[in-house]
Design a protein that fits this description.
CATH architecture: 3-Layer(aba) Sandwich
Radius of gyration: 16 Å
Structural class: alpha/beta
Bound molecules: guanosine-5'-triphosphate, magnesium ion
CATH superfamily: P-loop containing nucleotide triphosphate hydrolases
Largest sheet: 7 strands, mixed
Number of domains: 1
CATH topology: Rossmann fold
Shape: globular
CATH class: Alpha Beta
Strand content: 15-25%
Number of helices: 5
Length: 195
């Protein structure tokens, strides 16, 4: 898609009513600090539309980014951030679950995993959660630039095995630094949204 205009349209806190946008939505899930907001900026050719931070736990709301008044990219709160109290974590979990449950126009959920690390217990839970809500998660292996090229295939396999990816599931390596993987992700999103 040719990006013409983008804006942060809707921000939902824990108690907010979730919107019925009436437009195709693509959601991005993943643990805190994995690179969700950086991916969204990369996809939208913007440096700082989605707020990023080296401090985990930056995005604590569900943020809806309007793309060309045609579709929304949905930035979900990161999970697994140790410093957040359990009660707070449970609330975020519920909020994400509520979103996956209620969105009428959600076309796909991308699950982000740091390419350098094996999936965590929370990643596995999130993967299963997405599947149980009827979606086939598309995996983005983030921070590709941080890995030696010779390690890439091995680490992709470790992610596949760790999540027990279903056969035919997609896994796309991405770097917010080099933008490698961006075209492939857009091709997929165009297909999913009928752009
Ligand atoms: P929360 O909002 O806390 O859930 O985090 P997030 O998943 O939105 O992560 P964010 O995009 O804020 O990125 C976290 C940190 O990782 C920032 O310091 C980013 O600059 C860095 N980062 C993200 N993607 C990449 C990447 O592809 N390569 C490198 N080298 N750094 C990255
Ligand atoms: Mg974020």
């Amino acid at each position: 898609m040719v990006i013409k205009n983008v804006s942060l349209d809707i921000v939902c806190g824990i108690t907010s009513k979730l919107p019925d946008t009436g437009r195709p939505e693509i959601a991005f899930a993943g643990k805190s600090n994995v690179g969700k907001s950086s991916l969204i900026n990369g996809l939208l050719n913007r440096k700082a539309l989605a707020r990023t931070s080296s401090q985990p736990g930056k995005t604590q709301t569900i943020n809806f980014y309007n793309v060309n008044d045609f579709m929304y990219l949905v930035d979900l709160p990161g999970y697994g951030y140790a410093k957040v109290p359990e009660t707070e974590k449970a609330k975020w979990g519920k909020m994400i679950e509520r979103y996956l449950h209620t969105s009428q126009t959600l076309k796909a959920v991308f699950l982000l995993i740091d390419i350098r690390h094996d999936p965590s217990a929370n990643d596995k839970l999130m993967y299963d959660w997405i599947v149980n809500n009827g979606y086939n998660p598309i995996i983005i292996a983030t921070k590709l630039d941080k890995l030696k090229r010779s390690q890439v295939q091995k680490n992709i396999k470790a992610i596949k095995d760790g999540l027990k990816l279903r056969p035919g599931s997609k896994i796309i390596p991405f770097s917010a630094e080099t933008k490698q993987g961006k075209d492939e992700i857009w091709a997929l999103m165009d297909e999913l949204t009928g752009a």
